[in-house]
Amino acid sequence: MNPGRPLVFDLDGTLWDSTEVVADAWNAAVSEAGLELGSFKPADIASVMGLTHEQIRERLFPGLDREHWNEFSRRAYAREEDFLRQRGGVLYPGVQAGLRLLAERHPLAIVSNCQKGYIEVFLEWTGLRPIFQDWECHGNTGLSKGENIRRLCSRQNWNDALYIGDTAGDEAAARESGCDFLFATYGFGQASAAARPLHAFEQLFELVPA
Predict the structure, then answer these.
(1) Contact indicator for 77, 26 with CB cutoff of 8 Å
(2) Could you report the per-residue pLDDT of 16-54, keeping only the tens digit for each?
(3) Which domain holds residue 27?
């Protein structure tokens, strides 16, 4: 059963684009909290995809101290889950069917810098939970993405996992964890010139042998 090379995926910018729904959720949270933070656009959300909780504060909310940021973010993350359960995100072409086919010959997992519960919402909305063997996130552990990849692979006894992501941070995390890396060029970020490119999700079937 799925004896092929383990595949570990980033989520945002690699499997789906949730920026429009998340922007709407954050705008709702701002309104509910009575804060004067302006209006968020999908591009604002895209600019922080892949960052940790604290890095998002530094990028988008430099004027909020940690206490107020933590208070607001709890509300914003809750609205994210509510909105995404209703509307979902936009899966990249080939992801839904491609993951199901890949799962027939590869163990699959997800590691993201997202908050606790976000991956579960993705899995529930897409119906893909049964095909993933494991997942981990910064919101669960407080650890770096590289360390989360390493720990997930260790508990699954995976020695040759491939990490697929869309940012230089993902590339660095793969390097930190000792995994090879594929750069999803269709996502939100950039990677080094040395990163092996994945121009479309379906290309995985060519780049990763069964």
Answers:
(1) no
(2) 999 999 999 999 998 988 877 778 999 999 999 988 888
(3) 19-87
